[in-house]
Amino acid sequence: GKEKFHKTVRFAQFYFIDAFILLCCGAEFHLLSLHLDTTKDDLKRYKQRSVCKLVQKFSMASTMEITSLSAVNDFYSYIVLTAGSNRALEVFDLNAGCSTAVIQEAHTRSVYQICQNKGSSFSTQQPEAYNLFMTTAAGDGIKLWDLRTLR
């Protein structure tokens, strides 16, 4: 599109079984709707008819930049996890359209990776296992978190 981002887009991923795109830009992430036009027309093949529109912007509280973002795309999940340069983790519920929890000082340094339990097509898990996620920061190891208790 013709829209410009005010900072570099650091992270992008498909979301909600490929119905949306999530983009991180500065201290906010953008939820974009997606429509890919797959019609074949040799006369108009160079005309772009696929559309990507902004649905909503979500800002992380009191941080300069989002350092990591995680959202499950394999099944319907409304939860998006973000980590900021201020060492905080923030949980967003996109069904409600707001932030639901903030974990201050999750690590001693900025989190650079968040990994949610997405399950496996080769084995079954208890439903409670999908509430678990891991974070890691340079020099601080790996931490396992539970969304229900935020500990």
Structural notes for this entry:
With 151 residues, the protein is mostly beta strands. It has one domain (9-37, 49-149): 7 Propeller (Methylamine Dehydrogenase, Chain H). Helices cover 0% and strands 47% of the residues. It has strands at 9-15, 20-25, 28-35, 51-59, 66-71, 79-84, 89-93, 98-103, 111-116, 132-137, 141-146. The strands form 3 sheets. It has a 4-stranded antiparallel β-sheet, with no helix packed on it. It has a 4-stranded antiparallel β-sheet with strand order 5-6-7-8, with no helix packed on it. The radius of gyration is 17 Å and the shape is globular. InterPro entries: WD40/YVTN_repeat-like_dom_sf, WD40_repeat_dom_sf, WDR27. This is WD repeat-containing protein 27. Keywords: Membrane, Transmembrane, Transmembrane helix. It comes from Charadrius vociferus (Killdeer).
Helix/strand layout:
Blueprint: E1 9-15, E2 20-25, E3 28-35, E4 51-59, E5 66-71, E6 79-84, E7 89-93, E8 98-103, E9 111-116, E10 132-137, E11 141-146
Task: Write a brief caption for the model.
The protein is mostly beta strands and 151 residues long. It has no helices and eleven strands.
Beta fraction of the residues? over 45%
Radius of gyration: 17 Å
Percent helix, as a range, is under 10%
Biggest sheet strand order reads 1-2-3-4
CATH-assigned fold name: Methylamine Dehydrogenase, Chain H
| Average pLDDT | 90
As residue ranges, the low-confidence spans are none
**Which homologous superfamily in CATH is the superfamily?**
YVTN repeat-like/Quinoprotein amine dehydrogenase
Instruction: Kindly provide the name of the CATH class.
Output: Mainly Beta
| CATH architecture assignment name | 7 Propeller
| Global structural class | mainly beta
| Distinct helical segment count | 0
Q: What is the count of β-strands? A: 11
Count of structural domains: 1
Major sheet attributes: 4 strands, antiparallel
SSE run: EEEEEEEEEEE
How far apart are the termini?
41 Å
